[in-house]
Amino acid sequence: MVQSRPREQWLTPERRIKAMHPTSVQGVEDMISLGDLHEAGILRNLLIRYNENLIYTYTGSILVAVNPYQILPIYTVDQIKLYRGKKIGELPPHIFAIGDSCYNNMRRFKQNQCIVISGESGAGKTESTKLILQYLAAISGKHSWIEQQILEANPILEAFGNAKTIRNDNSSRFGKYIDIHFTKEGVIEGACIEQYLLEKSRIVSQGADERNYHVFYCMLAGMTREERQKLELTDASQYKYLTGGGSITCEGRDDAREFADIRSAMKVLMFSDSEVWEILKILAAILHMGNVKFKGKVIDNLDASEIPDTTFLVRVARFLGVDVRAVKEAFTTRTIFAQGETVVSHLSHSQATDVRDAFVKGIYGRLFIWIVRKVNAAIFKPKATHRTSIGVLDIFGFENFKTNSFEQFCINYANENLQQFFVQHIFKLEQEEYNSENINWQHIEFVDNQDTLDLIAIKQLNIMALIDEESKFPKDTLDLIAIKQLNIMALIDEESKFPKGTDQTMLQKLHKQQSHHKQYLKPKSDLNASFGINHFAGVVFYDTRGFLEKNRDTFSADLLQLIHNTSNKFLQHLFVEDIGMGSETRKRAPTLSAQFKKSLDMLMKTLLSCQPFFIRCIKPNEFKKPMLFDRELCCRQLRYSGMMETIRIRRAGYPIRHTFREFVERYRFLINGCPPAHKVDCHAATSKICHQVLGRADYQMGHTKVFLKDAHDLFLEQERDRVLTKKITILQRCVRGWYYRRRFQKMKESAVIIQKYYRGHAQQRRYQHMRVGYMRLQALIRSRVVSHRFKHLRGHIVSLQARCRGYLVRRDFQHKLWAVTKIQAQVRGLVARRQYRKLKMRVEAARLKEEEERTLRQQMDKRKAREIAEMKYNERMKEMERVEELRAVEDREMMDRKRALVREAERQRDEPVDDSKLVEQMFDFLPDSASEAQVPPSAFKDLPEAGQGMVSGDDIISGIPRPAGDQDEDLTEYKFQKYAATYFQGNVNHQYSRKQLKQPLLQLQTQGDQLAAMALWVTILRFMGDMAEPKYHVMDRDNTSVMSKVSATLGRNFIKSKEFQEAQMMGMDPVMYMSQKNRSIRHKLVSLTLKRKHKLGDDVRRKLQEDEYTAESYSSWLDSRPTSNLEKLHFIIGHGILRAELRPTSNLEKLHFIIGHGILRAELRDEVYCQICKQLSNNPSKSSHARGWILLSLCVGCFAPSEDFVKYLLSFIREGPPGYAPYCEERLKRTFANGTRNQPPSWLELQWLLGYCEERLKRTFANGTRNQPPSWLELQATKSKKPLMLPITFMDGNTKTLYADSATTARELCNQLSDKIGLRDQFGFSLYIALFDKIGLRDQFGFSLYIALFDKVSSLGSGGDHVMDAISQCEQYAKEQGAQERNAPWRLFFRKEIFAPWHDPTEDPVATNLIYQQVVRGVKFGEYRCDKDDDLAMIAAQQYYIEF
After folding, report:
1. Residues that constitute the known binding site
2. I need a surface site. Which of 470, 659, 674, 1087 has the fewest CB within 10 A?
3. Where is this region: Actin-binding (predicted)?
4. Is there a domain that residue 1139 lies in?
């Protein structure tokens, strides 16, 4: 069995299926004529027509419209003219046909008409209503102003009452009945609009992927800038009420253009400019009210709330014309009147939010009612003469969700009434057709839903009387009274009017009173707070939580008092009915259900007085896509719309109907001798066929049709199939015989041809096989000849190799023998010389003995002299032996100590170490408090120290030069992802990774740079916390700064060496070229690296120069042994430090290691930036992400990337966090302009680091690359997030503080100081900084920057050198001396460096005063000396005169 879907299903022979009726094969325009009149038949018919873009289908006078979700060309002016004056059925189904029939019936019978349009949300009800109104306006004959007003009312109602939902982008969230009034001539003269049950809860909350009402988004998108400024509005994403569903846009809608249409429609409908502005103020106040936030607190052990930020509250009060304090009290407190007393209670956080939301819903609901009344005032004309009308009802369809509340209860109640009205109308049509055909129909029955209506809303007891009666009884008898029979809606109203009524008590009463009703369903569990009703479309369970609150629709007395006191007359007008009521009247005000029931009763009364037409809108799918038909969804909608009830009514009678001509044409084969329909009397032939085939069955003959039951139709179809099958079998037998005979002749002829071609093909294949065999034989013979020649030649080569190797081995042996002999000769010579020295000393002692003996003989006898000389000789020999023994003992003790140290180091190396105690946090080395007071140099002891006291605003100089450049340069094409895909090696992508790299990201020229890149990657991972530090052992502390070791180890001029340049010119790989040069470059690199401090043995040097040893050591360095950043640098890059420093490293040392490479090696800068950017791309760790951006901000302030990568880096920074992007760009441009620094950032420099990263990038561009990595001072500023300030001391005792950054140069500070103090004659003035050793920097125009630490002073000059480089060097030098970086006691001074002979003291008094103060202090502290005492006395007198 092949289904209509593209699939097959196999059935067993025992199963019998009914053959598809011919009318269901191609589809019909009127489903009344369907033979298969059931759900599947109707659904298939709709599917066939929908696939052909035929969206309209009749079911009698009922029009079924399937939403196409696309624009079809069927609503043109030509279509309007085509359907005008035509009856239903004359032309294909169309909504214009319904409108035309309705219009013509109104004019012909002078009776009011109505068109009921129903369906689910998204089925097309609103669009169908528009088309009906447009058609009626077009055919009314006179295009008047009132017609235009009626059409323009729709955009306004849609804006305030429609919203985007998950089912429909323009869903109507209210029901409306538009009554169009016509004159006797059929001309439109007016209209009236009634609205039902606006969804006010959408104002304060929306479902996922839904929006609030259209008017809010249109207003924000379409207002002018001045209007938004007056209302203090921004874009829609800033308001809580507009972002609750997570969607602020709607595909296919232009909010700005629609706002212009709304304003135009308001002008057409006589809205004044002041009224429009008041509406906008109300809407703006609602948006601001949604942003008012409450904070919970406790007052007197009770939950209360407050509004911490009153910004939005002030705006709400201003737009509503009320006092801010009154609004705040109304939102956070509640006033209760009890027994003549007033009690004020505080509201909790949730209660305050509910009060605010209720206020908003009340304002918007009354504003919508006012807008509908305003529209009616414009389009409604009082009835002067007789007139007729056409009503168009656009109302919500039946709803059954997972959670159904009070709104669904009212909506389904309305649909029950409409279904009752629909069923009565359909049954009436059936009766009319049976009467016209003279068919007996008295026995037809149909399902009536009157029981469900009685259960919901038919009153059986007056509610007010019940309330009066219950008030007379005590509380414990209320349960007895509740037994009286009340319908569901009456029970809800009753419970809503009780002060202590709750949803739970209401549900209990419902279960008690209605549980016996057959249409009422009680949940199995008492914990389930819901009840069920068996509706015509199925069972629906309603959740009673919130029923009473929604039904009461109350408005707080505090809020009403607030509106009563407002100065906004428009707002008071919206609440004029509520304000006019007294408190008691307000309590007796009708509930929402009562109001809705009253409006619905009036609507049903209006519909019953009209001739109805029905349009059932069907939504084909939930995805709002064209040409997609969901059968289950459509079938459910057909049930909800009542179409299945139409089927039931028709099936209760005679659902199968054929005209006599159709019946004869189809079933004439069942009897013998019946000619075709055009040759016979069809009525007689039909009667004959039915009599012979059906016999006395229950069928009836009408005037033009035969009426059959389903069983009759099935029997006739089966008989027709049987007869046709028998006759067709005979025909098939003859045709098949002729077919197979002809087929055999063709097969025989084909077989002969195939045999001929196959035999030729077999011979060709045999030849090809033989040819391949001969070719293989030839190849085998040739291979044997070549193999024989190869073996012969190989024998000669092996013999030659043997002789050569023997020669080389003998030569090597001779060389080694010579070397051993040489070493032995040297060693033997050394031993001999040592023995010689000992013998010489003994000979010298013997000589001294003889001389002493000769001398003593002159003084005494010969024997006495010999004894004394012998005694001295023995003493001298003993002393020599003692000294020799002491020296041997000392040597043994020294060796023992060295062995003990080695054993201790090995023991500590093998001990387990706790990782958590050794891994430092990012800024653990920075203190929380200010650094210790700095000690000034002795030459400036009388000056105030930097950092002491409070710095006034006048002493702080701000104005870091910002580099000029194109701020709006488009960098959208320069994506880091694109750069990575183009330049990265291997399969490495641009995203975050915690794995070690197998090779550098970029192509590097030298092996040293490649190894450095690998070490940098590991160091960056450990700095960002993406790789844990391995275990390590602590040894003696090394005070040498990382930058000093980097500079000594890195070999920064290697790329500029002669050998490297030669390799590049020859077009060779530098690494290969170096290996071919007998490793001469490696020898030079080793000697360059080790020439300062490190002394290695020849054996260690030799191993270092071997590639295998270097690679193996590098692998073990990174994988198995914990190292500091400095050790990684020495071992990998310099190839010169083999002694690993087993000690922990701080984050400062890691920064120096990373940035030191970027400063000293321009070839590694892009590699460093690419590694950092890769780790910042899609980094899931917040800590790692923050560390990475801080590292990037430090790098852009110290060195700039290459021209090829700079735009990609700028684009990456601009897309980064807003706290870093702008300043980073400026720092980079400043670094480009001022050049690379020589020192890392200082401690103070990092005070200003957490600015904007994009500005830092621009500064790096402007000032060029630095020469030193960041200092401890910069990291301190990064942690504290304070601006970077440098105190400068003058010789007159004053101190000025300047803002600076990593790219600040001496020239910029000198210029800022000169401008601040009004120094015109700048020549010769300089800045000094204190440090241990002199720093030689450039000087420009005699104005320099000096630094002094302890008693040594050095000039920084006033050129383009970076100030922070000098401070970084001070910190590094302090570390080398055993102190901490933060304790480096540097100070900056502004003083005269060059004294020009042409200086005129009268031209610049400021310069003269500074020079004078410098000279006086210099003389006082011994910096300057006077040769004459008179000059010294004169200076002292002048100083005394000036000061006293």
Report:
1. 119-126
2. 1087
3. 600-622
4. yes
